Protein backbone atom coordinates (compact mmCIF):
# COMPACT_ATOMS: atom_id res chain seq x y z
CA UNK A 1 0.00 0.00 0.00
CA UNK A 2 1.30 3.48 -0.72
CA UNK A 3 1.67 5.86 2.18
CA UNK A 4 -0.88 8.19 0.68
CA UNK A 5 -3.62 5.57 0.55
CA UNK A 6 -2.81 4.49 4.12
CA UNK A 7 -3.31 8.09 5.16
CA UNK A 8 -6.66 8.28 3.43
CA UNK A 9 -7.74 4.92 4.82
CA UNK A 10 -7.14 6.15 8.32
CA UNK A 11 -8.95 9.40 7.72
CA UNK A 12 -12.16 7.58 6.94
CA UNK A 13 -12.33 6.04 10.40
CA UNK A 14 -14.23 7.85 13.14
CA UNK A 15 -11.89 10.57 14.36
CA UNK A 16 -11.82 10.00 18.08
CA UNK A 17 -12.40 6.27 18.37
CA UNK A 18 -8.74 5.46 19.12
CA UNK A 19 -9.05 7.51 22.31
CA UNK A 20 -11.41 4.85 23.67
CA UNK A 21 -8.27 2.84 24.47
CA UNK A 22 -7.66 5.32 27.31
CA UNK A 23 -10.98 4.54 28.96
CA UNK A 24 -9.93 1.43 30.92
CA UNK A 25 -6.93 3.39 32.18
CA UNK A 26 -9.16 6.28 33.31
CA UNK A 27 -11.67 4.00 34.99
CA UNK A 28 -8.95 2.73 37.31
CA UNK A 29 -9.12 6.09 39.09
CA UNK A 30 -12.77 6.56 39.86
CA UNK A 31 -12.30 8.91 42.83
CA UNK A 32 -10.25 11.38 40.78
CA UNK A 33 -12.70 11.10 37.90
CA UNK A 34 -15.58 11.91 40.25
CA UNK A 35 -13.59 14.83 41.73
CA UNK A 36 -12.91 16.19 38.24
CA UNK A 37 -16.59 15.78 37.28
CA UNK A 38 -17.91 17.61 40.36
CA UNK A 39 -15.40 20.44 39.97
CA UNK A 40 -16.25 20.72 36.28
CA UNK A 41 -19.99 21.06 36.85
CA UNK A 42 -19.50 23.45 39.80
CA UNK A 43 -17.26 25.75 37.72
CA UNK A 44 -19.71 25.73 34.83
CA UNK A 45 -22.68 26.49 37.07
CA UNK A 46 -20.82 29.35 38.72
CA UNK A 47 -19.99 30.88 35.35
CA UNK A 48 -23.55 30.53 34.15
CA UNK A 49 -24.86 32.33 37.25
CA UNK A 50 -22.98 35.52 36.38
CA UNK A 51 -25.31 36.71 33.56
CA UNK A 52 -28.32 36.29 35.88
CA UNK A 53 -26.74 38.67 38.36
CA UNK A 54 -25.89 41.08 35.54
CA UNK A 55 -29.49 41.15 34.35
CA UNK A 56 -30.73 41.81 37.91
CA UNK A 57 -28.27 44.67 38.15
CA UNK A 58 -29.25 46.23 34.84
CA UNK A 59 -32.99 45.92 35.36
CA UNK A 60 -33.26 46.51 39.16
CA UNK A 61 -29.86 47.24 40.74
CA UNK A 62 -29.62 50.82 39.53
CA UNK A 63 -32.99 51.60 41.11
CA UNK A 64 -32.58 54.59 43.50
CA UNK A 65 -35.39 53.32 45.79
CA UNK A 66 -33.34 50.35 46.92
CA UNK A 67 -29.67 51.31 47.25
CA UNK A 68 -28.88 48.23 49.47
CA UNK A 69 -29.83 45.83 46.68
CA UNK A 70 -26.80 46.68 44.57
CA UNK A 71 -24.48 45.85 47.50
CA UNK A 72 -26.00 42.41 47.95
CA UNK A 73 -25.74 41.72 44.18
CA UNK A 74 -22.04 42.60 44.27
CA UNK A 75 -21.46 40.50 47.39
CA UNK A 76 -23.29 37.60 45.72
CA UNK A 77 -21.07 38.04 42.68
CA UNK A 78 -17.92 37.78 44.82
CA UNK A 79 -19.31 34.54 46.31
CA UNK A 80 -19.91 33.14 42.81
CA UNK A 81 -16.42 34.11 41.74
CA UNK A 82 -14.96 32.37 44.83
CA UNK A 83 -16.80 29.15 43.88
CA UNK A 84 -15.64 29.54 40.29
CA UNK A 85 -11.99 29.98 41.34
CA UNK A 86 -11.98 26.99 43.69
CA UNK A 87 -13.80 24.69 41.29
CA UNK A 88 -11.58 25.69 38.37
CA UNK A 89 -8.39 24.99 40.29
CA UNK A 90 -9.71 21.62 41.50
CA UNK A 91 -10.78 20.72 37.97
CA UNK A 92 -7.33 21.62 36.66
CA UNK A 93 -5.64 19.57 39.39
CA UNK A 94 -7.76 16.45 38.95
CA UNK A 95 -7.75 16.43 35.18
CA UNK A 96 -3.99 17.02 34.99
CA UNK A 97 -3.43 14.36 37.63
CA UNK A 98 -5.48 11.91 35.58
CA UNK A 99 -3.53 12.80 32.44
CA UNK A 100 -0.16 12.25 34.10
CA UNK A 101 -1.34 9.05 35.80
CA UNK A 102 -2.84 7.51 32.66
CA UNK A 103 0.24 8.29 30.60
CA UNK A 104 2.54 6.83 33.24
CA UNK A 105 0.48 3.62 33.25
CA UNK A 106 0.33 3.59 29.48
CA UNK A 107 4.09 4.00 29.10
CA UNK A 108 4.78 1.17 31.51
CA UNK A 109 2.21 -1.06 29.78
CA UNK A 110 3.48 -0.37 26.27
CA UNK A 111 7.07 -1.04 27.37
CA UNK A 112 6.09 -4.26 29.15
CA UNK A 113 4.19 -5.37 26.08
CA UNK A 114 7.16 -4.54 23.84
CA UNK A 115 9.51 -6.65 25.94
CA UNK A 116 7.21 -9.64 25.40
CA UNK A 117 7.04 -9.31 21.60
CA UNK A 118 8.86 -11.72 19.31
CA UNK A 119 12.31 -10.84 18.00
CA UNK A 120 10.81 -10.64 14.50
CA UNK A 121 8.94 -7.49 15.61
CA UNK A 122 12.29 -5.85 16.34
CA UNK A 123 13.63 -7.06 12.98
CA UNK A 124 10.71 -5.29 11.28
CA UNK A 125 10.73 -2.06 13.30
CA UNK A 126 13.57 0.30 14.01
CA UNK A 127 14.40 0.67 17.68
CA UNK A 128 14.54 4.47 17.45
CA UNK A 129 11.06 4.55 15.99
CA UNK A 130 9.67 2.34 18.74
CA UNK A 131 11.34 4.52 21.37
CA UNK A 132 9.80 7.61 19.78
CA UNK A 133 6.37 6.06 20.09
CA UNK A 134 7.01 5.33 23.72
CA UNK A 135 8.01 8.92 24.44
CA UNK A 136 6.63 11.33 21.81
CA UNK A 137 3.24 9.67 21.39
CA UNK A 138 2.62 9.29 25.09
CA UNK A 139 3.71 12.90 25.63
CA UNK A 140 1.18 14.02 23.08
CA UNK A 141 -1.55 12.11 24.85
CA UNK A 142 -0.45 13.60 28.14
CA UNK A 143 -0.67 17.15 26.83
CA UNK A 144 -4.18 16.46 25.64
CA UNK A 145 -5.34 14.36 28.55
CA UNK A 146 -4.07 17.05 30.91
CA UNK A 147 -4.89 20.50 29.62
CA UNK A 148 -7.03 19.97 26.56
CA UNK A 149 -9.51 17.48 27.91
CA UNK A 150 -10.02 19.83 30.82
CA UNK A 151 -10.66 22.71 28.42
CA UNK A 152 -12.84 20.61 26.14
CA UNK A 153 -14.98 19.28 28.97
CA UNK A 154 -15.37 22.70 30.54
CA UNK A 155 -16.40 24.17 27.23
CA UNK A 156 -18.77 21.33 26.44
CA UNK A 157 -20.55 21.81 29.76
CA UNK A 158 -20.47 25.59 29.38
CA UNK A 159 -21.81 25.35 25.88
CA UNK A 160 -24.67 23.08 26.94
CA UNK A 161 -25.44 25.28 29.95
CA UNK A 162 -25.29 28.49 27.93
CA UNK A 163 -27.63 27.08 25.29
CA UNK A 164 -30.09 25.94 27.98
CA UNK A 165 -30.03 29.36 29.60
CA UNK A 166 -30.43 31.08 26.25
CA UNK A 167 -33.58 29.05 25.66
CA UNK A 168 -34.85 30.05 29.10
CA UNK A 169 -34.00 33.70 28.49
CA UNK A 170 -35.45 34.06 25.02
CA UNK A 171 -36.90 31.04 23.25
CA UNK A 172 -37.35 32.66 19.88
CA UNK A 173 -33.85 34.13 19.69
CA UNK A 174 -32.53 30.71 20.77
CA UNK A 175 -34.45 29.00 18.00
CA UNK A 176 -32.51 31.12 15.55
CA UNK A 177 -29.23 30.19 17.23
CA UNK A 178 -30.09 26.49 17.23
CA UNK A 179 -30.71 26.73 13.50
CA UNK A 180 -27.22 28.13 13.06
CA UNK A 181 -25.46 25.39 15.08
CA UNK A 182 -25.44 22.60 12.48
CA UNK A 183 -24.11 25.13 9.99
CA UNK A 184 -21.21 25.68 12.35
CA UNK A 185 -20.53 22.19 13.66
CA UNK A 186 -20.69 20.08 10.52
CA UNK A 187 -17.88 21.79 8.60
CA UNK A 188 -15.75 21.76 11.75
CA UNK A 189 -16.09 18.00 12.26
CA UNK A 190 -15.28 17.30 8.64
CA UNK A 191 -12.21 19.47 8.86
CA UNK A 192 -11.13 17.88 12.16
CA UNK A 193 -10.68 14.58 10.37
CA UNK A 194 -8.32 16.06 7.89
CA UNK A 195 -6.30 17.56 10.73
CA UNK A 196 -6.05 14.18 12.39
CA UNK A 197 -4.76 12.30 9.40
CA UNK A 198 -2.24 15.04 8.67
CA UNK A 199 -1.09 14.99 12.26
CA UNK A 200 -0.49 11.26 12.18
CA UNK A 201 1.52 11.77 9.03
CA UNK A 202 3.60 14.42 10.84
CA UNK A 203 4.20 12.19 13.87
CA UNK A 204 5.35 9.32 11.65
CA UNK A 205 7.90 11.59 9.98
CA UNK A 206 9.12 12.70 13.41
CA UNK A 207 9.50 9.09 14.54
CA UNK A 208 11.59 8.44 11.42
CA UNK A 209 13.78 11.45 12.13
CA UNK A 210 14.45 10.36 15.71
CA UNK A 211 15.13 6.79 14.63
CA UNK A 212 17.75 8.05 12.18
CA UNK A 213 19.28 10.36 14.78
CA UNK A 214 19.57 7.69 17.45
CA UNK A 215 21.18 5.27 14.99
CA UNK A 216 23.72 7.88 13.96
CA UNK A 217 24.45 8.94 17.54
CA UNK A 218 24.88 5.31 18.59
CA UNK A 219 27.39 4.78 15.80
CA UNK A 220 29.31 8.07 16.04
CA UNK A 221 32.69 6.30 15.98
CA UNK A 222 31.82 4.71 12.65
CA UNK A 223 30.35 7.96 11.35
CA UNK A 224 33.50 9.91 12.20
CA UNK A 225 35.93 7.24 11.10
CA UNK A 226 34.28 7.22 7.68
CA UNK A 227 34.20 11.05 7.84
CA UNK A 228 30.50 10.78 7.09
CA UNK A 229 29.50 13.63 9.44
CA UNK A 230 28.47 15.80 6.50
CA UNK A 231 26.35 13.23 4.71
CA UNK A 232 24.75 12.00 7.95
CA UNK A 233 23.86 15.58 8.92
CA UNK A 234 22.49 16.34 5.48
CA UNK A 235 20.40 13.19 5.57
CA UNK A 236 19.09 14.01 9.06
CA UNK A 237 18.36 17.58 8.02
CA UNK A 238 16.36 16.23 5.09
CA UNK A 239 14.32 13.97 7.37
CA UNK A 240 13.78 16.87 9.79
CA UNK A 241 12.74 19.04 6.86
CA UNK A 242 10.21 16.41 5.89
CA UNK A 243 8.93 16.30 9.47
CA UNK A 244 8.67 20.08 9.39
CA UNK A 245 6.75 20.03 6.11
CA UNK A 246 4.38 17.45 7.54
CA UNK A 247 3.92 19.48 10.73
CA UNK A 248 3.35 22.62 8.65
CA UNK A 249 0.62 20.87 6.69
CA UNK A 250 -0.99 19.71 9.89
CA UNK A 251 -0.73 23.18 11.44
CA UNK A 252 -2.13 24.84 8.32
CA UNK A 253 -5.15 22.57 8.53
CA UNK A 254 -5.56 23.46 12.19
CA UNK A 255 -5.17 27.17 11.55
CA UNK A 256 -7.83 27.01 8.87
CA UNK A 257 -10.03 25.08 11.28
CA UNK A 258 -9.65 27.84 13.87
CA UNK A 259 -10.46 30.59 11.38
CA UNK A 260 -13.46 28.73 10.09
CA UNK A 261 -14.70 28.11 13.65
CA UNK A 262 -14.34 31.70 14.79
CA UNK A 263 -15.93 33.15 11.67
CA UNK A 264 -18.90 30.80 11.66
CA UNK A 265 -19.59 31.26 15.36
CA UNK A 266 -19.31 35.02 15.52
CA UNK A 267 -21.05 35.84 12.27
CA UNK A 268 -24.03 33.72 13.36
CA UNK A 269 -24.01 35.56 16.66
CA UNK A 270 -24.00 38.99 15.06
CA UNK A 271 -26.98 37.99 12.93
CA UNK A 272 -28.93 36.79 15.98
CA UNK A 273 -28.08 39.93 17.92
CA UNK A 274 -29.31 42.17 15.16
CA UNK A 275 -32.63 40.35 15.46
CA UNK A 276 -32.64 40.85 19.25
CA UNK A 277 -31.90 44.56 18.87
CA UNK A 278 -35.01 44.88 16.70
CA UNK A 279 -37.02 43.22 19.55
CA UNK A 280 -35.71 45.67 22.15
CA UNK A 281 -36.40 48.63 19.87
CA UNK A 282 -39.97 47.48 19.33
CA UNK A 283 -40.40 46.91 23.10
CA UNK A 284 -40.90 43.12 22.88
CA UNK A 285 -37.85 42.51 25.13
CA UNK A 286 -36.18 44.40 28.02
CA UNK A 287 -32.63 45.68 27.63
CA UNK A 288 -31.58 43.52 30.64
CA UNK A 289 -32.93 40.37 29.02
CA UNK A 290 -31.07 41.10 25.80
CA UNK A 291 -27.96 41.78 27.92
CA UNK A 292 -28.37 38.43 29.68
CA UNK A 293 -28.96 36.65 26.38
CA UNK A 294 -25.96 38.39 24.92
CA UNK A 295 -23.66 37.20 27.71
CA UNK A 296 -24.95 33.61 27.40
CA UNK A 297 -24.42 33.77 23.67
CA UNK A 298 -20.87 35.06 24.20
CA UNK A 299 -20.19 32.26 26.69
CA UNK A 300 -21.69 29.67 24.35
CA UNK A 301 -19.81 30.97 21.33
CA UNK A 302 -16.57 31.32 23.26
CA UNK A 303 -16.97 27.72 24.44
CA UNK A 304 -17.52 26.55 20.89
CA UNK A 305 -14.55 28.58 19.65
CA UNK A 306 -12.27 27.06 22.28
CA UNK A 307 -13.64 23.61 21.51
CA UNK A 308 -12.71 24.03 17.87
CA UNK A 309 -9.17 24.94 18.91
CA UNK A 310 -8.62 21.98 21.22
CA UNK A 311 -10.42 19.69 18.79
CA UNK A 312 -7.28 19.67 16.64
CA UNK A 313 -5.13 18.73 19.65
CA UNK A 314 -7.52 16.00 20.65
CA UNK A 315 -7.46 14.67 17.11
CA UNK A 316 -3.64 14.66 17.37
CA UNK A 317 -3.88 12.61 20.53
CA UNK A 318 -6.25 10.23 18.78
CA UNK A 319 -3.53 9.71 16.17
CA UNK A 320 -1.00 9.00 18.93
CA UNK A 321 -3.43 6.66 20.72
CA UNK A 322 -3.96 4.80 17.49
CA UNK A 323 -0.24 4.16 17.10
CA UNK A 324 0.07 2.97 20.70
CA UNK A 325 -2.94 0.70 20.21
CA UNK A 326 -1.14 -0.81 17.25
CA UNK A 327 1.77 -1.74 19.50
CA UNK A 328 -0.51 -3.03 22.26
CA UNK A 329 -2.52 -5.15 19.85
CA UNK A 330 0.62 -6.67 18.32
CA UNK A 331 0.53 -10.31 19.40
CA UNK A 332 3.85 -11.93 20.35
CA UNK A 333 4.88 -14.26 17.54
CA UNK A 334 6.31 -16.67 20.09
CA UNK A 335 4.26 -17.30 23.21
CA UNK A 336 3.82 -19.81 26.00
CA UNK A 337 1.32 -22.64 25.44
CA UNK A 338 -1.75 -22.61 27.71
CA UNK A 339 -0.44 -25.57 29.72
CA UNK A 340 3.36 -25.49 29.38
CA UNK A 341 5.41 -28.56 30.27
CA UNK A 342 7.52 -27.80 33.35
CA UNK A 343 11.28 -28.28 33.11
CA UNK A 344 12.94 -29.96 36.10
CA UNK A 345 14.65 -27.45 38.48
CA UNK A 346 17.99 -28.55 37.08
CA UNK A 347 17.50 -29.42 33.42
CA UNK A 348 20.04 -31.86 31.97
CA UNK A 349 20.63 -29.67 28.90
CA UNK A 350 20.11 -32.15 26.06
CA UNK A 351 19.35 -30.30 22.83
CA UNK A 352 17.90 -31.76 19.70
CA UNK A 353 16.96 -30.54 16.24
CA UNK A 354 15.00 -32.82 13.98
CA UNK A 355 14.64 -31.96 10.28
CA UNK A 356 14.56 -28.26 11.10
CA UNK A 357 14.03 -25.87 8.22
CA UNK A 358 13.80 -22.16 8.88
CA UNK A 359 13.71 -18.95 6.86
CA UNK A 360 13.66 -15.52 8.52
CA UNK A 361 10.32 -13.70 8.21
CA UNK A 362 12.19 -10.75 6.69
CA UNK A 363 14.80 -12.79 4.91
CA UNK A 364 13.00 -13.56 1.67
CA UNK A 365 12.53 -17.12 0.50
CA UNK A 366 16.09 -18.23 1.14
CA UNK A 367 16.15 -20.67 4.10
CA UNK A 368 18.76 -19.95 6.78
CA UNK A 369 18.61 -23.58 8.00
CA UNK A 370 17.66 -26.58 5.88
CA UNK A 371 16.63 -29.97 7.24
CA UNK A 372 19.06 -29.81 10.14
CA UNK A 373 19.31 -32.92 12.34
CA UNK A 374 21.39 -32.63 15.48
CA UNK A 375 21.55 -34.01 19.00
CA UNK A 376 23.77 -32.53 21.67
CA UNK A 377 24.17 -34.60 24.84
CA UNK A 378 24.18 -33.13 28.35
CA UNK A 379 27.63 -31.80 29.21
CA UNK A 380 28.87 -32.08 25.65
CA UNK A 381 31.08 -29.34 24.26
CA UNK A 382 30.34 -28.58 20.63
CA UNK A 383 32.13 -26.10 18.39
CA UNK A 384 30.29 -24.72 15.37
CA UNK A 385 32.35 -23.40 12.48
CA UNK A 386 31.49 -22.30 8.97
CA UNK A 387 31.71 -19.38 6.59
CA UNK A 388 29.78 -16.16 7.16
CA UNK A 389 26.05 -16.58 6.59
CA UNK A 390 26.24 -20.36 7.09
CA UNK A 391 23.48 -20.29 9.73
CA UNK A 392 25.51 -20.51 12.94
CA UNK A 393 23.74 -17.66 14.76
CA UNK A 394 20.42 -18.88 13.40
CA UNK A 395 21.00 -22.17 15.21
CA UNK A 396 21.26 -20.18 18.47
CA UNK A 397 18.17 -18.16 17.63
CA UNK A 398 16.11 -21.31 17.22
CA UNK A 399 17.44 -22.99 20.37
CA UNK A 400 16.47 -19.84 22.28
CA UNK A 401 13.12 -19.91 20.47
CA UNK A 402 13.43 -16.37 19.18
CA UNK A 403 11.73 -17.78 16.09
CA UNK A 404 9.78 -20.95 15.34
CA UNK A 405 11.01 -23.10 12.45
CA UNK A 406 8.71 -23.55 9.45
CA UNK A 407 9.13 -27.31 9.76
CA UNK A 408 10.85 -29.74 12.09
CA UNK A 409 11.15 -29.73 15.86
CA UNK A 410 13.62 -28.27 18.33
CA UNK A 411 13.75 -30.12 21.66
CA UNK A 412 15.17 -29.28 25.04
CA UNK A 413 15.53 -32.17 27.49
CA UNK A 414 13.54 -34.19 24.92
CA UNK A 415 10.54 -31.82 25.08
CA UNK A 416 9.44 -29.88 22.00
CA UNK A 417 10.35 -26.31 22.98
CA UNK A 418 6.97 -25.10 21.70
CA UNK A 419 5.46 -26.95 24.66
CA UNK A 420 7.69 -25.07 27.13
CA UNK A 421 7.21 -21.61 28.52
CA UNK A 422 9.81 -19.58 26.55
CA UNK A 423 10.85 -17.84 29.77
CA UNK A 424 11.54 -21.18 31.46
CA UNK A 425 13.51 -22.35 28.42
CA UNK A 426 15.61 -19.19 28.31
CA UNK A 427 16.21 -19.39 32.03
CA UNK A 428 17.98 -22.70 31.39
CA UNK A 429 20.29 -21.17 28.79
CA UNK A 430 23.08 -18.67 29.36
CA UNK A 431 24.43 -16.77 26.41
CA UNK A 432 27.72 -15.00 25.91
CA UNK A 433 27.34 -12.95 22.73
CA UNK A 434 30.07 -11.69 20.46
CA UNK A 435 29.40 -8.06 21.35
CA UNK A 436 28.39 -7.57 24.94
CA UNK A 437 25.83 -4.92 25.68
CA UNK A 438 26.82 -2.96 28.77
CA UNK A 439 23.83 -1.16 30.24
CA UNK A 440 24.05 2.31 31.76
CA UNK A 441 24.02 0.90 35.29
CA UNK A 442 26.56 -0.05 37.96
CA UNK A 443 29.06 -2.85 37.35
CA UNK A 444 27.28 -5.00 39.94
CA UNK A 445 23.89 -4.44 38.28
CA UNK A 446 25.39 -5.27 34.91
CA UNK A 447 26.61 -8.63 36.20
CA UNK A 448 23.36 -9.37 38.07
CA UNK A 449 21.42 -8.77 34.85
CA UNK A 450 21.00 -12.50 34.39
CA UNK A 451 19.73 -13.05 37.90
CA UNK A 452 18.10 -10.14 39.66
CA UNK A 453 18.26 -10.44 43.43
CA UNK A 454 21.76 -11.96 43.45
CA UNK A 455 23.70 -11.05 46.60
CA UNK A 456 26.81 -8.91 46.56
CA UNK A 457 28.92 -11.94 47.48
CA UNK A 458 27.48 -13.97 44.60
CA UNK A 459 28.15 -11.13 42.16
CA UNK A 460 31.73 -10.83 43.38
CA UNK A 461 32.26 -14.60 43.18
CA UNK A 462 31.01 -14.62 39.58
CA UNK A 463 33.31 -11.72 38.73
CA UNK A 464 36.28 -13.51 40.32
CA UNK A 465 35.52 -16.67 38.31
CA UNK A 466 35.20 -14.54 35.16
CA UNK A 467 38.62 -12.90 35.78
CA UNK A 468 36.81 -9.57 36.08
CA UNK A 469 37.33 -8.86 39.77
CA UNK A 470 40.74 -7.30 39.23
CA UNK A 471 39.70 -4.50 36.90
CA UNK A 472 36.29 -3.98 38.54
CA UNK A 473 37.80 -3.53 42.01
CA UNK A 474 40.22 -0.99 40.55
CA UNK A 475 37.39 1.24 39.25
CA UNK A 476 36.81 4.51 41.16
CA UNK A 477 33.80 3.18 43.07
CA UNK A 478 34.53 -0.50 42.60
CA UNK A 479 31.43 -2.54 41.76
CA UNK A 480 29.21 0.50 42.26
CA UNK A 481 30.88 2.36 39.36
CA UNK A 482 28.50 3.34 36.59
CA UNK A 483 29.34 1.60 33.32
CA UNK A 484 28.18 2.16 29.78
CA UNK A 485 26.72 5.42 28.60
CA UNK A 486 28.13 8.35 30.59
CA UNK A 487 29.98 5.85 32.78
CA UNK A 488 33.33 4.14 32.48
CA UNK A 489 34.01 2.68 29.04
CA UNK A 490 35.40 -0.84 29.08
CA UNK A 491 37.81 -2.53 26.70
CA UNK A 492 36.63 -5.38 24.47
CA UNK A 493 38.20 -8.00 26.71
CA UNK A 494 36.71 -6.44 29.83
CA UNK A 495 33.25 -6.39 28.28
CA UNK A 496 33.55 -10.05 27.42
CA UNK A 497 34.51 -10.89 30.98
CA UNK A 498 31.44 -9.01 32.24
CA UNK A 499 29.37 -11.15 29.86
CA UNK A 500 31.04 -14.28 31.19
CA UNK A 501 30.38 -13.18 34.79
CA UNK A 502 26.74 -12.67 33.85
CA UNK A 503 26.56 -16.20 32.48
CA UNK A 504 28.36 -17.67 35.51
CA UNK A 505 25.91 -15.97 37.83
CA UNK A 506 22.99 -17.22 35.79
CA UNK A 507 24.34 -20.75 36.32
CA UNK A 508 22.28 -22.35 33.53
CA UNK A 509 22.83 -25.94 32.34
CA UNK A 510 23.29 -24.81 28.72
CA UNK A 511 25.77 -22.26 27.47
CA UNK A 512 25.62 -20.63 24.04
CA UNK A 513 28.84 -18.82 23.30
CA UNK A 514 29.54 -16.69 20.26
CA UNK A 515 33.27 -16.25 20.41
CA UNK A 516 34.47 -12.74 19.69
CA UNK A 517 36.30 -12.39 16.41
CA UNK A 518 38.09 -9.24 17.45
CA UNK A 519 41.65 -9.78 18.60
CA UNK A 520 42.38 -9.17 22.26
CA UNK A 521 45.74 -8.32 23.72
CA UNK A 522 47.61 -11.37 24.96
CA UNK A 523 46.83 -10.77 28.61
CA UNK A 524 43.10 -10.25 28.03
CA UNK A 525 43.05 -13.28 25.77
CA UNK A 526 44.45 -15.51 28.49
CA UNK A 527 42.04 -14.09 31.07
CA UNK A 528 39.02 -14.58 28.79
CA UNK A 529 40.06 -18.13 27.89
CA UNK A 530 40.57 -19.05 31.56
CA UNK A 531 37.18 -17.55 32.42
CA UNK A 532 35.46 -19.44 29.63
CA UNK A 533 37.07 -22.73 30.61
CA UNK A 534 35.63 -22.29 34.09
CA UNK A 535 32.23 -21.40 32.70
CA UNK A 536 31.96 -24.44 30.40
CA UNK A 537 32.72 -27.06 33.06
CA UNK A 538 29.67 -29.25 33.68
CA UNK A 539 27.47 -27.49 31.11
CA UNK A 540 26.28 -28.37 27.66
CA UNK A 541 28.07 -25.78 25.59
CA UNK A 542 27.73 -24.77 22.00
CA UNK A 543 30.39 -22.38 20.80
CA UNK A 544 30.51 -20.50 17.53
CA UNK A 545 34.25 -20.85 17.44
CA UNK A 546 36.82 -18.55 15.93
CA UNK A 547 39.85 -19.69 17.92
CA UNK A 548 41.85 -22.84 17.39
CA UNK A 549 42.22 -23.37 21.14
CA UNK A 550 38.45 -23.59 21.54
CA UNK A 551 38.05 -25.93 18.62
CA UNK A 552 40.76 -28.28 19.83
CA UNK A 553 39.06 -28.64 23.19
CA UNK A 554 35.63 -29.39 21.72
CA UNK A 555 34.19 -32.90 21.92
CA UNK A 556 32.77 -32.45 18.46
CA UNK A 557 32.97 -29.90 15.68
CA UNK A 558 29.97 -29.10 13.48
CA UNK A 559 30.83 -27.56 10.14
CA UNK A 560 27.99 -25.56 8.65
CA UNK A 561 27.56 -24.22 5.16
CA UNK A 562 24.52 -22.79 3.40
CA UNK A 563 22.16 -23.66 6.26
CA UNK A 564 23.16 -27.31 6.65
CA UNK A 565 25.65 -29.28 8.71
CA UNK A 566 28.11 -30.51 6.13
CA UNK A 567 30.70 -32.24 8.34
CA UNK A 568 31.06 -33.35 11.95
CA UNK A 569 33.97 -34.82 13.84
CA UNK A 570 37.04 -33.86 15.85
CA UNK A 571 39.65 -31.49 14.53
CA UNK A 572 42.03 -34.29 13.51
CA UNK A 573 39.31 -36.31 11.80
CA UNK A 574 38.08 -33.30 9.86
CA UNK A 575 41.54 -32.16 8.80
CA UNK A 576 42.20 -35.64 7.47
CA UNK A 577 38.96 -35.53 5.48
CA UNK A 578 40.31 -32.55 3.49
CA UNK A 579 36.83 -31.06 3.09
CA UNK A 580 35.42 -27.62 3.87
CA UNK A 581 36.76 -27.73 7.43
CA UNK A 582 40.28 -28.44 6.30
CA UNK A 583 40.11 -25.45 3.96
CA UNK A 584 38.60 -23.16 6.62
CA UNK A 585 41.17 -24.27 9.21
CA UNK A 586 43.97 -23.66 6.75
CA UNK A 587 42.65 -20.15 6.02
CA UNK A 588 41.86 -19.21 9.58
CA UNK A 589 44.64 -20.82 11.56
CA UNK A 590 47.24 -21.46 8.87
CA UNK A 591 50.16 -23.70 9.75
CA UNK A 592 49.14 -23.57 13.41
CA UNK A 593 46.31 -26.00 12.64
CA UNK A 594 48.26 -28.64 10.79
N1 LIG B 1 17.17 -11.22 11.45
C1 LIG B 1 17.34 -11.69 10.22
N2 LIG B 1 16.42 -11.43 9.26
C2 LIG B 1 16.59 -11.90 8.01
N3 LIG B 1 17.61 -12.65 7.61
C3 LIG B 1 18.56 -12.94 8.51
C4 LIG B 1 18.49 -12.48 9.85
N4 LIG B 1 19.56 -12.93 10.52
C5 LIG B 1 20.28 -13.64 9.63
N5 LIG B 1 19.70 -13.67 8.42
C6 LIG B 1 20.17 -14.40 7.21
O1 LIG B 1 20.22 -15.78 7.50
C7 LIG B 1 21.38 -16.40 6.99
C8 LIG B 1 22.16 -17.08 8.11
O2 LIG B 1 22.64 -16.08 8.99
P1 LIG B 1 23.42 -16.37 10.34
O3 LIG B 1 23.44 -15.09 11.10
O4 LIG B 1 22.84 -17.55 11.02
O5 LIG B 1 24.85 -16.72 9.79
P2 LIG B 1 26.20 -16.97 10.60
O6 LIG B 1 26.70 -18.30 10.17
O7 LIG B 1 25.99 -16.77 12.04
O8 LIG B 1 27.12 -15.85 9.99
P3 LIG B 1 28.27 -14.95 10.70
O9 LIG B 1 29.42 -15.84 10.99
O10 LIG B 1 28.59 -13.94 9.64
O11 LIG B 1 27.64 -14.36 11.92
C9 LIG B 1 22.16 -15.31 6.29
O12 LIG B 1 21.87 -15.41 4.91
C10 LIG B 1 21.59 -14.02 6.84
O13 LIG B 1 21.60 -13.01 5.88
TrEMBL record:
Its subcellular locations are:
Cell membrane
Stretches that traverse the bilayer = 33-53, 73-94, 143-167, 173-191, 255-277
Q: Which residues form a coiled coil?
A: none
Write one Gene Ontology MF term.
ATP hydrolysis activity
The record's SUPFAM superfamilies line, in alphabetical order, gives:
ABC transporter transmembrane region (SSF90123), P-loop containing nucleoside triphosphate hydrolases (SSF52540)
Q: Which InterPro entries match?
A: AAA+_ATPase, ABC1_TM_dom, ABC1_TM_sf, ABC_MsbA_ATP-bd, ABC_transporter-like_ATP-bd, ABC_transporter-like_CS, P-loop_NTPase, Type_1_exporter
Keywords for the protein's UniProt record, in alphabetical order: ATP-binding, Membrane, Nucleotide-binding, Transmembrane, Transmembrane helix
Cellular component annotations (GO), alphabetically ordered: plasma membrane
Tell me the domain of life.
Answer: Bacteria
Q: What does this chain do?
A: Part of an ABC transporter complex. Transmembrane domains (TMD) form a pore in the inner membrane and the ATP-binding domain (NBD) is responsible for energy generation.
What protein name applies here?
ATP-binding cassette subfamily B protein
Per the UniProt entry, what species is this protein from, by scientific name? Answer: Kaistia hirudinis
